[in-house]
Amino acid sequence: MTFVLHVPDAGLEPEPLDPAQIVSGSPEVTGRVLWTSPDGRELRGLWQITPGVVTDTEADEMFVVLSGRATIEVEGGPTLEVGPGDAAVLRAGDRTTWTVHETLRKAYALTLS
């Protein structure tokens, strides 16, 4: 499928967090999958999270921050400061802690194991 989507106006659907992932605050996640490969292992989409602190275990992912700011601490690895225009890569299995300072929206491409 070939299409164009004006990202600032793109509607996103709620993606409830597992309460065990929430470290502090009341972050809310929304997203929208724009494309899935035939085998279901590759996804492209939009994702947004409101301020708070959450943990996650990552898939192989490359993303570009469209708006907002966050600090991503990778267990045993670097601390990433991300904001509008930044591209980041996370590896499958990375255990992360996201401190979201301003509602963050990103466009992502990920591969599931």
Any overview of this molecule?
- The protein has no helices and nine strands.
- Strands 1, 2, 3, 4, 5, 6, 7, 8 and 9 form a nine-stranded antiparallel sheet that branches.
- The model has no long low-confidence stretch (mean pLDDT 97).
- The relative contact order is 0.26.
- It starts with 12 loop residues before the first strand and ends with a strand.
- The protein is mainly beta and 113 residues long.
Task: Give a brief outline of the structure.
Helix content is 0%, strand content 59%. By secondary structure, the chain is mainly beta.
List keywords for this structure.
113 residues; 9 strands; mainly beta; nine-stranded antiparallel beta sheet
User: What is the arithmetic mean of pLDDT?
Assistant: 97
Class per helix and strand makeup: mainly beta
Strand content: over 45%
Query: SSE order in H/E notation?
Result: EEEEEEEEE
What is the global morphology?
globular
Number of helices: 0
Sheet with the most strands?
9 strands, antiparallel
Number of strands: 9
Which residues form runs of ≥5 with pLDDT under 50?
A: none
Topology summary:
Layout: E1 13-14, E2 22-24, E3 29-36, E4 42-49, E5 52-57, E6 60-74, E7 79-82, E8 87-90, E9 95-111
Antiparallel strand pairs: 1-3, 2-5, 3-4, 4-9, 5-9, 6-7, 6-8, 6-9
